[in-house]
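Students often ask why inverse folding is considered easier than folding. One informal answer: many sequences map to the same fold, so there is more than one right answer. In these notes we will look at a single instance of the problem. The structure comes first.
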């Protein structure tokens, strides 16, 4: 395993590229860097810029999580103009191994390493050891994954595109929101509301339902107005966000049998702070008819750790080599 060190580790979303260096098995991450994707023309340019800034030896291996489906050698980001070939990236970096996986697959691989200081509980019971875990995270898009644990302790992270499932409503208000969004977008996926641009969609739909003209707000503007309680449409948008997130998280927990817990990653929920209605999230999470008691026993957490997906990327490379 030591032949795959030192390692370049990456977690590449639609907005930011996160990089780190790991020099040996079990070693802490070094030189963690977060840079905007717009600062580089391509993933290779971003990686080369990071390595040049370190001014150290070349890596022997790389493991990179990317915010898109990984179905072959050619990678095209969902919410970014970047695209690349895995084989060409490996050759350009001059490395022996180059693992590219979905970014939420990488984040799922980190779940067993997270401690109490890395998580904020938002209700529920106790995790069942060894049971499946579920993961979803609103950010630039909506990432979804899960983690299965074998009796031997080996982990298998799921790689899918659950953020693009068709969104369902739980009450008349949500049905009206979906009607507004279908008029604009046709298909309304979970990502269409549970993401940065999704928060804008919810705000615009709220304004439409209230008979108000929407302002040229971005997600950060909506968040700030909701926290300050200065705009009713922004507050409603954030409330709808919590409601839809709870509904989708509950569906995911039922689908995976995630009695090991449900984890909420991504950058949006932590930024919402006190404006995020955790009680509403849990209400929608648990409201699944005859399976309400089943879901009441499942704990849910918000991931507060800074860069856990980088550790997950490293662990995924170890599993590939095992």
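Output (designed amino acids):
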């Amino acid at each position: 395993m030591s032949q795959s060190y030192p390692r370049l580790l990456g977690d590449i979303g639609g907005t930011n590229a996160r990089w780190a260096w790991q020099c040996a098995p079990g070693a802490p991450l070094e030189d963690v860097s977060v840079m905007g994707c717009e600062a580089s023309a391509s993933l290779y340019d971003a990686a080369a810029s990071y390595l040049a800034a370190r001014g150290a030896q070349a890596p022997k291996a790389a493991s990179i999580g990317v915010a898109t489906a990984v179905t072959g050698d050619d990678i095209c980001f969902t919410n970014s103009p970047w695209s690349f070939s895995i084989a060409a990236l490996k050759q350009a970096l001059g490395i022996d191994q180059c693992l590219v996986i979905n970014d939420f697959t990488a984040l799922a691989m980190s779940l067993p390493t997270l401690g109490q200081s890395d998580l904020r509980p938002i209700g529920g019971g106790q995790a069942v050891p060894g049971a499946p875990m579920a993961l979803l995270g609103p950010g630039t898009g909506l990432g979804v994954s899960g983690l299965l644990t074998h009796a031997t302790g080996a982990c298998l992270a799921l790689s899918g595109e659950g953020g693009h499932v068709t969104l369902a409503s739980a009450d008349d208000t949500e049905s009206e929101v979906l009607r507004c969004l279908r008029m604009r977008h046709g298909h309304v996926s979970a990502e269409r509301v549970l993401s940065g641009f999704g928060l804008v969609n919810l705000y615009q739909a709220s304004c439409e339902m209230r008979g108000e003209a929407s302002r040229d707000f971005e997600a950060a503007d909506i968040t700030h107005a909701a926290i300050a309680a200065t705009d009713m449409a922004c507050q409603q948008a954030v409330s709808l966000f919590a409601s839809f997130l709870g509904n989708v998280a509950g569906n995911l927990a039922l689908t995976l049998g995630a009695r090991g817990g449900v984890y909420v990653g991504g950058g949006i929920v932590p930024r919402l702070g006190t404006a995020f209605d955790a009680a509403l999230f849990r209400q929608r999470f648990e409201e699944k008819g005859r399976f309400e008691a089943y879901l009441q026993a499942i704990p849910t957490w918000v991931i507060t750790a800074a860069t856990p997906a980088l550790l997950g990327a490293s662990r995924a490379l170890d599993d590939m080599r095992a």
